Amino acid sequence: MSEGSFIKKELYAKVKLVELIKRINTRYRYKDIELWILGSKVEPWTSSIDLGRVEIDLKRTSHISELREILAIERSRGRKIALIPTMGYLHQGHLALVERAKQTGAFTVLSIFVNPLQFGPHEDYSSYPRDLERDAHLAEVAGVDVLFHPTSEEMYPWPMVTYVEVCQLDRVLCGAKRPGHFRGVATVVSKLFHIVQPDSAFFGQKDYQQYLIIQRMVRDLNLPIEVCPVPIVREQDGLALSSRNVFLTAEQRQEALILSQSLDEAEKILRAGERSARLLETHLREKISRGSQGMIDYVEIRDAQDLSEVINIERPVLVALAVRFGSTRLIDNKVLEVESLVENDDEI
């Protein structure tokens, strides 16, 4: 075999390996490589390619103008844009949002911004966990196309006098316990929507009330954005993933399992035929109080579509919990549909 023929076969094998990796491992992205080999002659430029490292570098910017330039280029190529808004300190729940966005084939923008507008005066804004370099690495490995991490000065260069408020939906649950919180959320998400102008945006259902508020804001303001919910991601023992989990002591983390256990029990009680929302709330409160030292913020059964009050459970409901373990406030929820529970029992 001639030397040229050997090189040609070696290059072909490496390219095929890269293509195989692209198909198998969707959490990594690789440059499309075209090696034009004419006859037995290898083009000189191929010798400068490092086929051992073909991972695309993550684009990063903290500037709105630069982000818009990047997105304008992608749109000119016919790409759809997907946005994943976060406050950083990424975990597998955030990465599940990225995975769902990548499945659409869109150019993915992940934003990291700890938004001061959504924190009250005595809340954990200053202590909220931050680690931008760690987050950037996780974002790159997950396949994010561009990481947008603006400063407060970039997002709010002058005192804010314009806010977005989604009435009614923000008056209950976390909205009742954290006045002004959802005004801050709706305002910053609205700003991100105007900056990025995404075709779709992805939100985790752990923050179910937030998801409903953003969905309603998009509908009311006629924004051409698809709001995509992604199911809660949990640890193997049931604890819902949250950036705030890092503040829990080992004992508090163990006690926090009472949240998912209570949600599972709510499903069992409904399956057994109980339909009184008040009785179910009382039972769950007692279970949490007996099973932990957590301080209950709320245990409520709400309509899953509009968070209105429910007396008798006859339609899909949200079982929503908020409990403080030490200084760490955790939320969890589960959407339960009576009809599906009854149907499943009939099948059994």
UniProtKB/TrEMBL annotation:
GO terms for cellular component: cytosol. Gene3D superfamilies: HUPs, Pantoate-beta-alanine ligase, C-terminal domain. The active site is at residue 94. Keywords: ATP-binding, Cytoplasm, Ligase, Nucleotide-binding, Pantothenate biosynthesis. GO terms for biological process: pantothenate biosynthetic process. ATP binds at residues 87-94, 204-207, 233, 241-244. It is found in: Cytoplasm. GO terms for molecular function: ATP binding; pantoate-beta-alanine ligase activity. Beta-alanine binds at residue 118. Its EC number is 6.3.2.1. It catalyses: (R)-pantoate + beta-alanine + ATP = (R)-pantothenate + AMP + diphosphate + H(+). CDD domains: PanC. The keyword Calcium does not apply. The reaction proceeds by a bi uni uni bi ping pong mechanism. Catalyzes the condensation of pantoate with beta-alanine in an ATP-dependent reaction via a pantoyl-adenylate intermediate. Belongs to the pantothenate synthetase family. Homodimer. This is Pantothenate synthetase. It comes from Candidatus Desulfosporosinus infrequens.
